[in-house]
Amino acid sequence: MDSDHQEHLDVSRDVSPDNDFSGDPSDDDFGYDSEEEEEERPKFYPTCGLCRFYFEPGDPVCIFGSVGKNLPFRWKGEYAVPVVEPRRNGEKAFHIKCVDLVDSRISVWDDHRVRFNPYLHRMSMISGSIPYFIQPPKSFTNQRDRWLRNSITKDLQYALRGRLPPEICQTIASYCTQERATQIIRDLWLGHGRRYQTEMMIPLDYTYPTRSMMIPLDGNCPLWIRYTEMEGFRYVESISCIQQHESDELFFSPDDFAGSPLNIYFTEDHRGIRQIVITESNTPPSKYRGAGLHWAICCRHQKLPFCLRFKSDGIKLRDFFITASERRSPNWDLRRWATFPRDLDTFPQPPAICDGYDRNLSYYDAIQAIDWNAPDICGYYFYITDGELRGIVAVKEQDSRTSHVDEYQHGHLSNVVGIYIPVGHGERVSELWLRTGDYGDDAIEADTLIVRTNKHRNCVLGLDTSSFWLRFDSKESKKFTYKKLASFPPVGQTRMFYSRSGHSKTWLAFEKPTNLEAWLGYGEITTWTGEIEVLLPFPHDEPTSNNIFHNNYLVASAPLHGVRSVTACRSWENDFGYRIVGLLLTYIDGTQRCVGQVRPDHLEAPMEVRSGKIWLGSWKWRGEARRTVPLIRTIKCVRVIEPEPPENKVYDYLEMQMTGRLDWYFDHVGSSGLAPRSDVGERHDEMEAVLDRQSHLRESEIKAFDIKNWPVRK
After folding, report:
1. pLDDT in tens, 521-558
2. Which portions of the chain have biased composition (kind: Acidic residues) (predicted)?
3. What domain range includes position 651?
4. Are 319 and 430 in the same domain?
């Protein structure tokens, strides 16, 4: 980075106040946000196109080249959280103070003739993803914020010669991170033209986000690689056949090349390529799994000569591929992997990326991995969007509650379901089942994954069987088919890979144990063939038998007897004012169960149950008659002590005896229903009839599976 600390910090610069637009272009060039004439509200991307920090409601922002039909192509106003966070075709907005900071070196406000400013467009591509918005994991955002604060702190201590304590410098730095991030992008862009004279590293124009380049590789010439640093992360900047700078590193040497076929991989995050590996070894690169980092396989066992093809945004490489000849077109749609299996040659071939809505968002389709029954696991969190299993997080006791949970968030606010399974001491996941049934009158075939433990507990990762009867459905019974996908060994851990497959499927594949693991007695995973058909009657005893949700729903149930404490989980998005979406129940024997949706990093403090009752409060609406259970309302609070009369004026409380069980019904849009049943025990186990007939199944070789998503009715 630039060694000029004063220019980077720029603490003496008098940035215009947030509400002072006196230095901006004339009012005629911008459309303004007004309450009287508001035809369309912009659907913002949630981060600034320059500093990449998240907007706060009310931030002064501007848009260059709006995509809204009824918006002027230049718009200025205040940031408002959209109802749905767009993944594409959103408005790329900028903090006005960030634009002012860039405008001190690049003329941004002056040219009003073009629809979008080319400099801002280019810098926004360098600072973020191409071509659409990608929300990085929270761990990435936190690491970036720490680096920015620490770099400002060091500059302050250097400039002031240590006259202020580090704690005060850290406090000052926390108010300057947006400016520092904008300065870094600005200086990278300005310094690029000064540092490099080769035409290959200069983008063709400002219209396209990247430029495709090519280098032939025949094994006779070396390759040199150059890295650039951006906010503490190192990215690949360029590849060349000659050493152009003393910092260039030797990437490929003919002297070390033995003539064997080559294997090429690269790893990237949402902003660019971090590392490229060329090796003659068949062993995959490091299996370390970093949040937001993904590997891609360019080639395996490829003989020379061939051509290296890559894209650059002018600062760092964005994509990488090889072609057999110069005339071949590269296939940029490579599968991304969170980590590699031990043996890529014998591992089942994953499906290709579907050609559809998310073709350019292969980041979201990365092949993920989960280690079932790894040591110290206390639970599993399942992240489901649009009926599709997108993420599984193995929560360990020593991990922070935020570990890898946000890696699967990706800006979704709608059609999201989060399910948490606490795992007790000695409890293991023993089996995976697949249930298939015809959903609704139009008989849509829906698959549901069922996780079963050695303590005879089931977790249904999808629709409850009772929701397959829609309103006015006249069928008295429905047929369901069950397939046993896998049985896990009683000791050791098993790695499963999974990813999106096509438009509406999830792909699963299992890794075989090593010879050492087999010798130690860990055993192999067993997959099965055959299926079991079960005819289930109409659920007359279900309180949702008239389908009060008007769409599909899930059910999480837990006994209430013996509950020692209750922990509420609030929504992780600001819908309906951060309502309570689920409960984590802890029993006297230390075991835990969940009802509703529970996310480990959004749990409140546990509350001890002493009176044998709890109270769930929801907003009291004027003139609303009390509904019969299940209570379909927005739950705002949980009490373990009887509420005082003043609270009863604000909330309508549902008093629950800690006997029987609690069924929590919920759907993908956030509707919920509670059904406390004081006179019944555990919920009926749908797997009982299935397990009695599993002798019809036969063991098979380990294989991969495709699971169809359960339908989401909107």
Report:
1. 777 888 888 888 888 887 776 665 544 554 578 888 89
2. 25-39
3. 368-677
4. no
